[in-house]
Design goal:
single chain; alpha/beta; Rossmann fold; six-stranded parallel sheet; four-stranded mixed sheet; 12 strands; about 25% strand
Amino acid sequence: MEKVCRNWPKEAFSKDLINPNSWKEFEENAKLAAAEVYRLPDMAAAKEKLIELLKSLEVKSILAVGGDEYPALDKLYKDLAAEGNAIHTEKFDIAESANTADLGISTAEFGIGETGSLCVDNYSYEARVTSMMPPVNLVFMNADYTTTDVDTAFDVISKVFDKGYMGFVTGPSRTADIERVLSLGVHGPSRLIIFAMDSGMERSDD
């Protein structure tokens, strides 16, 4: 899957930029922006919570990216498929299923404490579709990868950005264009669910 940076931790993160102590502020501000945040110890806990969500949301079709980078995430996707879930992980399969999928599972590079935002490397078409088209977006991130503020986030990005597409995601899609009444899900997902992992987000090239 095409990305702005193939390995963000190795190429962009440093101790003066990425600060695990920013987690608490990130969690608080993400929740204030209407994101649902779950800090989970490992992929076994993530799978248990995800299956619970699939049942409560009555999910019939899933778009999923990130398995090529994270072996544990790839295994999770294969387990879900083996258990009878319709999960689409290939580029053209994702494109064909985008209009009818109930859930998109994607990844974030890091979080920003100041705003509760996620920094996403969505250079690839399939990553953009997965995070924007379904009504619910579930995002996996490493809980240790947070920055203090937006300025620091741009410092991180400046280390690797040459071309491509990136974004900051702060809560679910929202607008107040119509009579200043806040509406969720008009231009994108109406729910943003964050799985912040203590382990399980080790990369295939680490």
